[in-house]
Amino acid sequence: MSILERFSLAGRTALVTGAGQGIGQAFALALAEAGADVAVVDINPESAASVASQIEALGVRSMPVVTDVRSSDEVDQMVADIVDAWGRLDIAVNNAGIGMWAPAEEMTDEQWESVLAVNLNGVFYCCRAEGRVMLEQGHGKIINTASMSALIVNRPQCQVSYNASKAGVAHLTRSLATEWASRGLNVNCISPGYTRTPLVDQVAHLVDGWLADIPMGRMAEVEDLQGALVFLASDASAYVTGHELVVDGGFTLW
Ligand SMILES: NC(=O)c1ccc[n+]([C@@H]2O[C@H](COP(=O)([O-])OP(=O)(O)OC[C@H]3O[C@@H](n4cnc5c(N)ncnc54)[C@H](O)[C@@H]3O)[C@@H](O)[C@H]2O)c1
Fold this sequence. Notes:
Blueprint: H1 3-7, E1 13-17, H2 22-33, E2 37-42, H3 45-56, E3 62-66, H4 72-86, E4 91-94, H5 109-137, E5 140-145, H6 160-180, E6 185-192, H7 198-201, H8 207-211, H9 226-233, E7 244-247
Parallel strand pairs: 1-2, 1-4, 2-3, 4-5, 5-6, 6-7
Helix pairs in contact: 2-9, 4-5, 5-6
The structure holds nicotinamide-adenine-dinucleotide (NAD).
Residues 17-18, 20-24, 42-44, 47, 67-70, 95-98, 118, 122, 145, 147, 192, 194-195, 197-200 line the site of nicotinamide-adenine-dinucleotide.
């Protein structure tokens, strides 16, 4: 098979969580452009439906699936619905995540738990449900969205719960990779640097300060992350597992 053929996702079935906007939307569109059918999973029904329409316009199948990844019951149902509709699940991208900024000494239990519930519990619930299907199939690609915050401590904003959750995602990824490597599954994660999305718009006043810490001198656009995802979703990465692919314009080098 030629190298370009090994990057093709034609005929594969995929899901992306948090695909209603931002990085997840770009991930879903990238998989579809590479040939996969893509289920658009999001807590927001309107944005999920809108992105599913964009994907169908590319000539592949799509479906919006409204799911709150904080609920393991909803996650199990989401995976069951996709497998019922399409017969199998080849690629799963667990991307839904939220940010929260507060000094640690002022943080409430609720604030702490709200971030962990989406960013860490949600990723585990998804991996577990997807892994059950993929282990039965004997193949599957799981890609989690971590963050460079798994590796460094952002400044000047205080975000201990986010940083801890993303370090958890990166190590959960390595752990699952070893549990499932001999049974046909690849489990990897992508760690983006600062990326222009509605999440970052919430702290837009900090952007100018961040730019000086980025060797490339700019934030990522969501398109900058698409190539890494297609690589990890495709046969081209068959021997890659437990890897954290950092896409940060060099941020973590300084
Ligand atoms: N933007 C960045 O700079 C950046 C950098 C590194 C990592 N990330 C990570 O990338 C991922 C996507 O970030 P983004 O910037 O696109 O964020 P975003 O806020 O633009 O999009 C997040 C999407 O997730 C959905 N979502 C939120 N809670 C959910 C839940 N409980 N169940 C299902 N869906 C839910 C939202 O509705 C939204 O569509 C997150 O995991 C984030 O932590 C972002």
